[in-house]
Amino acid sequence: MSYKEGLSISYETSPDKKRSLADLIFGDTDLAFHYGYFKEIFRSRALALKGLYDNQTWCESSAKILDLVENCGGKVKVQGIEKILSVDGPVVIAGNHMSTCETFILPTFVTQYKPVTFVVKESLTTGKLFGPIMRSRDPISVGRSNPREDLVAVLEQGTALLKKGMSIIVFPQSTRTTDFTPAEFNSIAIKLAARAGVPVIPVALKTDFWENGRIVKDLARIFRNRKILITFGDPLFPTTDSRKNQESLLNFVVSHLKNWGTKVND
């Protein structure tokens, strides 16, 4: 496991980027955004059912959602991408979970360097719409009704995937939320990484551009005045005490969220 220094990779939406004609025509109704979103979902689903939704296709699909976000007025800034490839082999990427947005655009920044999958709730793998797509990514699914069973599933399945070279994205929270409660940010990512002997790459996310819907979380408003901010941090190595790594991960997330003006609960 080697650490490669001296690299700096970032991404930022061009300040000259204009909203698409379709988005301008529909104004603030968000119809262009949701049309483009579901169009890409159905395309991806069809490919997954044919067994054609591989890591590269997932990366391209994620990039299309990123383009859609920018075409609908979203401004994106991603920093610290070099942290993902600063260590050889698979990693656990862990951070806060704010909205649907990160699940769709993170892959385009990760899969270019490492094959990756998610820890997801079981319902996402069994649903008719998203199920084929999620199953094609060989995710770790958890029921969220029995924390002990979920922990065992993540540790056992996650370790097996990491040993095969597959990196894993984990959101150690019970649900997506625009504010952040440190007490609800568990240590499952750190435990998985320690067991598998791989680093954790922290990630802080501000993605409230895409609001969580009240009835259907994926179907909600977008806020063009809210910038999408994603920052990856330095690797946390498994040779360090797990409690210290958990503290470092939590501090990384909290400090960035506070700097970005996100509410952090006591």
UniProtKB/TrEMBL annotation:
Q: Which SUPFAM superfamilies match?
A: Glycerol-3-phosphate (1)-acyltransferase
UniProt cross-references to Pfam families, sorted A to Z: Acyltransferase
User: Locate the Phospholipid/glycerol acyltransferase domain: which residues?
Assistant: 91-208
UniProt entry keywords in alphabetical sequence: Acyltransferase, Transferase
- To which pathway does this protein belong? Lipid metabolism
UniProt cross-references to SMART domains, sorted A to Z: PlsC (SM00563)
An annotated GO BP:
phosphatidic acid biosynthetic process
> Which molecular-function annotation in GO is an example for this chain?
1-acylglycerol-3-phosphate O-acyltransferase activity
Protein name per UniProt: 1-acyl-sn-glycerol-3-phosphate acyltransferase
Specify the domain of life of the species encoding this protein. Bacteria
